[in-house]
Amino acid sequence: NVLLTSVAVYFPLFLVLILLYETLRPRVPHVYAPENHADYPEAKQRKFLGWVPFLWRIDEAQVAEKCGLDAWVLLRFMKMGRKVALLCVLCSLALFPMYFFTAAVFEAQEQEKQRHHLSQLLPGGRGNNASVAALTSMVMIMFDEQVNATNGTSDILSSDGKVKLDVVDRLTIANVGKDDWRLYFTVLVAYMISVYVMRLLLNEYTVYRKRRHEFLMRKHPQQYSVVISDLPQAQRRPQTLQAYMDFLFPNSVHSVYIGVECAELEELLDKRQELVYHLYSANVKLAEAKAKAGEHDVIKRPKALIGRRFFGLCGGGKDVDAVDHYTEEMQKLESEIVRVRDEILQRHGEVAKDKKFDGWPSLG
Predict the structure, then answer these.
(1) Which end of the chain is more exposed for a tag (fewer CB within 10 A), N or C?
(2) Torsion over CA: 53, 54, 60, 61 (sign)
(3) How far is CA 160 from CA 113, 154, 156, 163, 173, in A?
(4) Where are the bilayer-spanning segments (predicted)?
């Protein structure tokens, strides 16, 4: 029995996981209960399954107040899933009897009875009359072909005429024959569940919009960062903007940071990082060549192919010393980075003339 086998396997596993969770929960509170927003007593937290009735009684307003909108939305989504699952269970209870008591099973059983009765009437297998035995076999084959051509239900019966399908198998739609009227109810239930889910989503959106507006209209919102765009030219300095924010909101602004457009600088830094890898690889190869070469041997310095066109498909290019080439390219790129950096700071009025760029850290 598939149902009993599933229960025998998964139900003990479920109990083991529950016991394991209840054993670890009070012993590892920083994992399972890092914060106690609802002020749940610690003595009740250690009780076996003591958190279940507490969570069942918790109010959504408390969740939104203590944990924010994200936790509230997650809770609402789980409740919506519970409603959909309950509807699916109710629809399944209505469809299971239709799938279980199908006409295909009863027709197959009736045809098996007729087949057994016909085999008793025909004199096959008695005596040595080969023609009678052949006639009996031919009639039985024709009867089997007729059964298979009608509804194809003979495969669900065993040799003794009993239904081979398990109870769980008979509860599925696979047990319904072709062009059966029960399929219309399956399609109707699918449409009903889809409409119900769409209706729930619309209601949840309405509730969320109302809750979000209430959250944003509070006197003291819970946002800790505010983004301001299109700042006036005179306010595009951290000190000036900090003073202006302190004037508008005394003792409320922690810090001010002005974000700048530095895509070009980021691109140059990516190129520099790639050059660092190439220069490091060239230095490693040079050190290995020095270690292998003797005192009077010529050191074979690593080479780099530059000037290739179309990934080398069209030829061209020349070999240069890799260490010298990448070192020279690194110096040029660092000068370009300094130039772009100073331009960005000048545009935002933050260049300190008495400060000097000390260069990038060395590879050693």
Answers:
(1) C
(2) positive
(3) 10, 12, 12, 9, 25
(4) 6-24, 84-106, 181-202
